[in-house]
Amino acid sequence: MVTTLDKVDVVTIGVGWLGGIIAAECAKEGLKVVGLERGRERGTADFASVHDELRYAIRYELMQDLSKETVTFRNNRNQRALPMRQMGSFLLGEHLGGAGTHWNGHTWRFLPYDFEIKTLTDQKYGANKLSPDYTIQDWGITYDELEPYMTKFEQTAGISGEDKNPFWGKRSADYPTPPMKKTPILKKFETASTKLGYSPFMLPSANLSEAYENPDGAKINACQYCGFCERFGCEYGAKSSAEITVIPTARNTGNFDIKFNANAVEIMKQGDKVTGVRYFDTVTFEEFIQPAEVVVLTSYVMNNAKLLMVSKIGEQYDPATGRGTLGKNYAYQILPGASGFFEEKMNTFMGAGALGMTVDDFNGDNFDHADLDFIHGASLSITQTGNRPILTNPIPPDTPSWGAEFKKASIENFTRTLSVGGQGASMPHKENYMALDSTYKDVYGVPLLQITYNFTDQDKALHAYLTEKAAGIMQEMGAKTVVGGSPISDYDIVPYQTTHNTGGTIMGADPATSVVNNFLQHWDAENLFVVSAGNFPHNGGYNPTGTVGALAYRCAEGIINYSKNGGALV
Q1: Which of 2, 356, 461, 518 has an alpha carbon within 20 to 30 A of 418's alpha carbon?
Q2: CA-CA distance, 258 to 433, in Å (whole number)?
Q3: pTM value surpassing 0.90
Q4: Could you read off the pLDDT of 458-491 as tens digits, one per residue?
Q5: Fold for the domain defined by 2-77+88-162+182-211+225-565
Q6: In sequence order, which residues have a C-beta less than 8 Å from that of residue 65 and are 6 or more positions away?
Q7: Which residues form the Glucose-methanol-choline oxidoreductase N-terminal domain (predicted)?
Q8: Does residue 257 contact residue 251 with C-beta atoms inside 8 Å?
Q9: Could you give the residue numbers annotated as active site?
């Protein structure tokens, strides 16, 4: 038996950064909002004993339960896709706050080049710089148009940073809090990169350098540099996340309610509008329908795409014909870099998720690509995130991977190894996409999402070029041994790489080439909005969260205008 609940103004599917932003903004305007969260409630008090690497970093306490739902993966259409049985390349979050609870806190704005990448690349290098197999396109919005929303997200989260990067877009306001501490390790990077003619600056961080109260009155504490950020919740309330910022703001209005253990399985649709969401209680397996005037998909990239697919909203992308947009332009990330082994000991076991320095000299189109066989690039950073003993066993080349010699080398180099790593941009390719799996289903009987993805020639060329640049910085830093990252070949869904998946529900100015418009409103259903990094037509040289947060504020504005004016935002 299905229970139909009372209708509300807005329902969000997922209550993390995106669902929290939508809820807070809409609830402040008097709209009644319900958030469907398939996990449980949690907050700072739950992380009092979070310094447990085995429980959180190895056994994934905060992550999605893959025994109930996972994804299937293959490198190409000729392979059979198989389920991911344990967490591998990316770490999907679950419970209140989502992946924003266990993130590191890197908070970037994509470059102006990113938003008009097709136009600007063609203008500078010609339309044949990349083959037609690469499906790059403009976003349907410019950096300048999105900039006010970027500022709003940074002010909500209290981001700590400095405006010293000569390559990024113009800012309308400075960071709300100063940059984090510049440690001896970061100074070593700063000195070396400056000598090489680059322009280092402190990485923008959601691990706050000082206590901060945001415009909504939410208070965020100062970072203690304990080194337990990624894969962990913050016991100090010092890593900005949805459950200490936008979710309390939404709840304080009295217009927001969260339904926990609520797993959405279908978006209900009649004609050119959606009517609500069908979901299961994950504890009792009771079935409910939550009617709403506006439905907003605010869950992770993959789940947003899957829900549209199972609900048959939009045309599924077909790589054989190039038709359709849903599932198109799935992109991941490339990780060029180099490690260095030093003589001196360093304090590598303390730090914070976004404590670091960066150079952008090889990101975006900040350098000439005329004689290169790729476009875009990577931010190159050194981060001091806090090395932990189970997952950190740095050993020089030719050291055995087990036994007494391995143990000795691992202990010796635990505090003597540094890395310079790149967040490499990933260009979309016609053969990289998402679809529904025809064989495997989740615990609710819904088909699993299938990912078809492999590294391209563009990826391999970018990786090789940027790895050489990273090695040059490490050499200048004085490492006795420098080891560049191995060349990439086929993508493997293990081991962990990043949780920076993009595409599948891409935005744009034309319904023929995008799923949503630049207010993140679905072209085929005027009261359906879809927001996540899935809106990115390609992946950039940064972590996506800052840009996604801006899109959420843009989306919230669209929902409020739609709700109050009753007009379609197209």
Answers
A1: 461
A2: 32
A3: yes
A4: 999 999 999 999 999 999 999 999 999 999 999 9
A5: FAD/NAD(P)-binding domain (3.50.50)
A6: 94
A7: 219-329
A8: no
A9: 500
